[in-house]
Design goal:
Layout (H helix, E strand, L loop, with lengths): L2 H20 L22 E3 L6 H8 L3 H7 L13 E3 L19 H7 L35 E3 L9 E4 L5 E3 L4 E7 L7 E7 L3 E11 L6 E2 L4 E5 L8 E8 L2 E3 L10
Antiparallel strand pairs: 1-2, 3-4, 4-11, 5-10, 6-7, 6-9, 7-8, 8-10, 8-11, 11-12
Length: about 260
């Protein structure tokens, strides 16, 4: 082969190599399926999110967790499934219309023909936290923290009271009970702890810097459960609530009078 032909061949190879190197690689197709967001819950329902508990949802809507369990026929209130709808009101009982066309005309015959209804017992739902772990008789409530009273119950639509203090100041259980929620999934409360006392009362401690207890843990009255902070708040403070049968009540009616 002549020198001229060899040169042309080399140039051709270089040109082809350049063309190949400048070609963009084929796009990689992502085969991972992206889950579609679930539609919002219709009126009167709550769509269960990751991190939800029945106590947290009941607290959020001002309901008694027992009612919530009964309305949704939950065999175990401690087990709820993410993505499912939770009914926030009792189901409407629709009764079929009774036709009177074929009924006997005599009232006495009608009375004898109709069976006497037997009262049905409603099985009580077993809460995820055992009844034995929650004291039935409450002790005298104590203040969860020492500091100036910043906001009273009902002031600026507050469902509790706000107590001032410094970062890291101890937050204590206002009564003996069991921790039924410790997390950050409730908007406006920051790091929140909810304690169940007996069958009818809850207490809540919000905006903590650090939480020192976990769900399911039994606590004594006066036990340190958190450190004061400003999570999801405009300043360092403790937001404290007491709920009776799910409804907010004025904590100052429970706490001892300050001198």
């Amino acid at each position: 082969m002549s020198r001229h032909a060899t040169g042309l061949m080399l140039l051709s190879l270089l040109w082809l190599t350049g063309c190949i190197s400048t070609q963009k690689p084929a796009p990689v197709r992502d085969t991972n399926l992206v889950s579609r967001p679930l539609p919002p819950a219709p009126a009167g329902f709550h769509r269960i999110q990751r991190g939800d508990t029945l106590y947290k949802i009941a607290f959020q809507y001002g309901l008694d967790f027992r009612d919530l369990a009964a309305w949704n026929q939950l065999a175990d209130p401690g087990v709820i499934q993410s993505g499912k709808l939770l009914r926030l009101a009792p189901p409407i009982q629709r009764r079929a219309p009774v036709s009177t066309a074929a009924m006997p005309a005599t009232a006495d015959v009608l009375t004898r023909a109709m069976p006497v209804p037997t009262p049905q017992k409603t099985a009580e739902k077993t809460p995820s936290i055992s009844e034995a772990a929650v004291p039935e008789q409450l002790e005298t409530w104590i203040w969860p923290s020492q500091g100036p009273l910043l906001t009273r119950f009902g002031q600026a639509a507050s469902k509790g009271i706000d107590i001032g203090g410094s970062r890291g100041h101890p937050v204590r259980a206002a009564n003996a009970g069991t921790v039924v929620y410790a997390g950050t999934n409730l908007r406006g409360y920051g790091k929140l702890i909810i304690i169940r006392h007996g069958k009818s009362h809850l207490s809540a401690y919000a905006h903590n810097e650090r939480m020192l207890v976990a769900e399911g843990q039994s606590v004594m009255r006066g036990q340190s459960i958190a450190e004061m902070g400003d999570t999801d708040a405009d300043r360092i403070k403790l937001h404290f609530e007491i709920r009776e049968h799910g409804k907010p009540v004025d904590p100052l009616n429970y706490l001892p009078k300050q001198s």
